[in-house]
């Protein structure tokens, strides 16, 4: 089974996939290999989200992209394919084990030359980057406690009219469940409030997969 939105039943999800460009052989193999990892595979983005992110990257003419949280590399595969031949994707993650799966897929797809993977705490990696408006698009999909920190570091490094995409912002509906007060849910609520009140940007939450915020820097 492909990962899917918690908002969709199986029948509607199958219809959605049937009316969109499906993952190619490499993407499908990566989804299957990730699924074999077990429960941790829920960290992989849904194929329809990958398609949307690639479309957005192409629509803004992205040449420089950064993602925080790479996991097994499906999001990176989608984004790298949307970049021009001289485009660059910087991937930040802490796991050699999981990203090694992505590296094989990137090589098989011929996009590994566009991708730089830096292993280590992502906040440290971001703070080490020059504070200049370098990136056309950024994607955040990592530990929820640091979402606000990642956003704070990325916004000065994204160009005007550039995009920041943020995953899991609906958290399977937990953001509106008063009984949920775990650390991740509280962090996501606080992050959503932060972005909604930030006059430096405009944003909207899309009901794609587990909720995807699209932020445009003014």
Looking at this protein, list some descriptive labels.
218 residues; Rossmann fold; 7-stranded mixed β-sheet; 8 helices; 39% helix
Low-confidence stretches: none
The CATH homologous superfamily is termed Vaccinia Virus protein VP39
- Provide the succession of SSEs: HHHEHEHEHEHEHEE
| Biggest sheet descriptor | 7 strands, mixed
Cα-atom Rg, whole angstroms? 16 Å
What would the CATH topology be? Answer: Rossmann fold
First CA to last CA: what distance? 39 Å
Report strand %: 15-25%
Write structural notes for this entry.
The longest helix has 14 residues, at 96-109. By secondary structure, this protein is α/β, with parallel strands linked by helices. The protein has a 7-stranded mixed sheet, with helices on both faces. It has helices at 10-18, 25-35, 47-59, 74-82, 96-109, 122-127, 147-154, 183-196; strands at residues 64-68, 88-93, 115-119, 135-140, 158-167, 201-206, 212-217. α2 runs antiparallel to α5 (96-109), α3 (47-59) packs parallel to α4 (74-82) and α4 (74-82) runs parallel beside α5. The radius of gyration is 16 Å and the shape is globular. β6 (201-206) and β7 form a beta hairpin. The protein contains 8 helices and 7 strands. It has one domain (10-217): Rossmann fold.
